[in-house]
């Protein structure tokens, strides 16, 4: 049985020798869900693609505050698992430089960046705090501006590398802060590295597709490109009951030139692997066929996993990773970013697994030994059971099908859209960025 009538397009050729349903991590699934993945794309055992991995030095050492759910330490945990599994041997690893102020201002207001760059934890609160939305969710912590420059520099370096055609896939787990607004902090995000990276890609790519699988709506990225037909945004998220950020309704489809170039997939609590992955593949395959992007940016927020501290979905790491594998299978230049994720042991498991998926490497379920073994007790397994079914699934087959049909209708409008020409490219910020890429991004020691 194929859930949601997902049918692979005959025009998209993917190797079929290995499927997701072969995964030993799918033991608990009912037989009916297995068929869903029979058409899943496959990653060859030894991928020929070139993968670039960006890990800014010290990015995991910042602290939002003891009680704050955003823990940059999850990046250190992730990196340790990536190294422990030997995945760095499959990639070119870079220690990128921090973004400059000018680069942040490619998207953000000058006044906002000025505030961000000068405020400190000891600054006496003033009118700017509320103007720029600095409150509980977005505290001012030690090194905040450097943290922002650090993860943004990595996304930017990754985007440059992709634009130059010298890598097929670029990964920055420290990026993906999708709520940041032009002149306002929001939802633990200060600088929107995604928008800045997409702006860089747009200098060389006619059309860029943005996909967001964080449990929260990718509002900052959607807003930035709401009027654009060169960036299509697609967000899968929980919607309703005042769930943050309260945007992302099915009816939000873009405006002006950007009308029909924005899709939202609003979901309810407790969605399971079969429902999510089935809908994801159906929507994304048609979107990619129709929009024909030159490159894809995939935000992999891990708060859509089961048992997330702030989330309410039931996704397994295998299913989350299957979405990544599916997008990789299209063979387009791909920028992979992190995002939310608040049960940090599972965030690290998820992103390490997805690094293996992207490099086409099979890794064992037993986690490698790292200085952080205690975090992964007692099982020390990669594919930890994430309380499947803990949250009652409020999405029915009928409700998901209704969303799918509406999105297919919306995508039909794109067939009539004028073809997007390469517009005149803006002059590059520093000029000669290819050279800058070589100089500015140190190769990390393996
Ligand atoms: Zn989130």
UniProtKB/TrEMBL annotation:
<feature type="binding site">
    <location>
        <position position="137"/>
    </location>
    <ligand>
        <name>substrate</name>
    </ligand>
</feature>
<feature type="binding site">
    <location>
        <position position="342"/>
    </location>
    <ligand>
        <name>substrate</name>
    </ligand>
</feature>
<dbReference type="Pfam" id="PF00850">
    <property type="entry name" value="Hist_deacetyl"/>
</dbReference>
<keyword id="KW-0804">Transcription</keyword>
<comment type="similarity">
    <text>Belongs to the histone deacetylase family. HD Type 1 subfamily.</text>
</comment>
<dbReference type="GO" id="GO:0141221">
    <property type="term" value="F:histone deacetylase activity, hydrolytic mechanism"/>
</dbReference>
<feature type="domain" description="Histone deacetylase">
    <location>
        <begin position="68"/>
        <end position="357"/>
    </location>
</feature>
<keyword id="KW-0378">Hydrolase</keyword>
<feature type="binding site">
    <location>
        <position position="303"/>
    </location>
    <ligand>
        <name>a divalent metal cation</name>
    </ligand>
</feature>
<feature type="binding site">
    <location>
        <position position="187"/>
    </location>
    <ligand>
        <name>substrate</name>
    </ligand>
</feature>
<dbReference type="InterPro" id="IPR023696">
    <property type="entry name" value="Ureohydrolase_dom_sf"/>
</dbReference>
<dbReference type="InterPro" id="IPR003084">
    <property type="entry name" value="HDAC_I/II"/>
</dbReference>
<dbReference type="GO" id="GO:0070210">
    <property type="term" value="C:Rpd3L-Expanded complex"/>
</dbReference>
<dbReference type="InterPro" id="IPR000286">
    <property type="entry name" value="HDACs"/>
</dbReference>
<protein>
    <recommendedName>
        <fullName>Histone deacetylase</fullName>
        <ecNumber>3.5.1.98</ecNumber>
    </recommendedName>
</protein>
<feature type="binding site">
    <location>
        <position position="214"/>
    </location>
    <ligand>
        <name>a divalent metal cation</name>
    </ligand>
</feature>
<dbReference type="InterPro" id="IPR023801">
    <property type="entry name" value="His_deacetylse_dom"/>
</dbReference>
<feature type="active site" description="Proton acceptor">
    <location>
        <position position="179"/>
    </location>
</feature>
<keyword id="KW-0539">Nucleus</keyword>
<dbReference type="GO" id="GO:0040029">
    <property type="term" value="P:epigenetic regulation of gene expression"/>
</dbReference>
<dbReference type="GO" id="GO:0046872">
    <property type="term" value="F:metal ion binding"/>
</dbReference>
<feature type="binding site">
    <location>
        <position position="216"/>
    </location>
    <ligand>
        <name>a divalent metal cation</name>
    </ligand>
</feature>
<keyword id="KW-0805">Transcription regulation</keyword>
<dbReference type="InterPro" id="IPR037138">
    <property type="entry name" value="His_deacetylse_dom_sf"/>
</dbReference>
<keyword id="KW-0479">Metal-binding</keyword>
<feature type="region of interest" description="Disordered">
    <location>
        <begin position="1"/>
        <end position="24"/>
    </location>
</feature>
<keyword id="KW-0156">Chromatin regulator</keyword>
<dbReference type="GO" id="GO:0034967">
    <property type="term" value="C:Set3 complex"/>
</dbReference>
